[in-house]
Amino acid sequence: MIRKIADGVYNVGAIDWERTLFDEIVSTPQGTSYNAYLVIGSEKIALIDAVEPEKVEQLLANLEELNVKKIDYIVSNHAEQDHSGAIPVLLEKYPGAKVVTNAKCKGFEMDLLPLKDDDFIVIKEGDTLELGGKTLKFIMTPWVHWPETMTTFLVEDKIAFTCDFFGSHAATTHAFAEQYDRIYHEAKRYYSEIMMPFRQIVMRNIKKIEALEPKIIAPSHGPAYSEPSSIINAYKEWVSETTKNEVLILYVSMHGSTKKMVDALVDYLGDEGVEVKVRDIVHADMGEIAIDLVDVTTLILATPTMLAGPHPSVVYAAYLANALKPKVKVVGIMGSYGWGGRTVDILKSNLGALKVELLEPLLIKGTPKKEDYEKIREYAKKIAEKHRELGVMK
Ligand code: FEO
Known about the structure:
This protein is an alpha/beta fold. It is built from twelve helices and 24 strands. A seven-stranded mixed β-sheet has the order 1-2-7-8-9-10-11. Strands 17, 18, 19, 22, 23 and 24 form a six-stranded parallel β-sheet that branches. Strand 22 (330-337), helix 11 (343-349) and strand 23 form a beta-alpha-beta unit. The chain is elongated. The mean pLDDT is 96.
């Protein structure tokens, strides 16, 4: 399906309605798309990004439908195979085409794909490529998602092709997000899983894109934005240091004791005026947990003791939270134990990248008793106090 973006600019990429998992870890409940943008100048034709190799037939069919007989340039903003993997097939089909990218991306693509040195034209920051009435300008935007990622800006139409940056895993027939009301959640999911670890660099890249004053932002996943401020402002809020008056409790409970502690903490936090999100890690979607992590102030890991340490699912959640580097300010470890173990040490060792205040752990022997509930109430008060100190709650 071809989606028109502007005169002479078409999204000819592939829609993947059935994909449910990305990178073998990221859930994609709304599917995804691999957008490839055809830019037709009076003299030259460029294709910006390609598609996942197994979806190349959709791309080729769209090019056929537009009667594209030659492509001069395949601009590659990012080497990851969901955007670059179909380039070898495109070069076979359009043998005159050259791959236009930066030196780092060229290196990655030569490692990953059967491409040779003279398949490439190497560009750098600020270089331009004339297509005839349409000029492509290249802006380096590293770490959104890999170190080589860049943005291509179509100067005359003021369209920023940002690849993963501002993307969303969302399969839709709509060209633009403004026609598609589920997109905010999917864009936040995408940010949390892909961009959040690089918040500082993302902020610098937002400024670079803003300086272009784009009229359209066209990422390579999900719909484009005809009102760029909507996604730019959402990103600014997500990358900012501001957090919400919220606690995220991630828990596992084998026989119910830890769950009783969690239930009590939820009630007591409610009494204190703190919002709570609770997720049973074993059954929760890690993508939803990543979204929660974007702006919560406090993260609580609640675990029973198992194999002399935390439940392995809680270790996994701690490892992921640590890798995603959310702006969480406070972390607490709580749970029930039978006869000891290294729960706190093991979880702490998995949280080293987070710049957080660690609350005194709250570990209870067996199932919580009356005096334990008092401790949990005190724990809730302590969290509320931290929220007041941090200015997220009055
Ligand atoms: Fe959509 Fe980082 O690839």
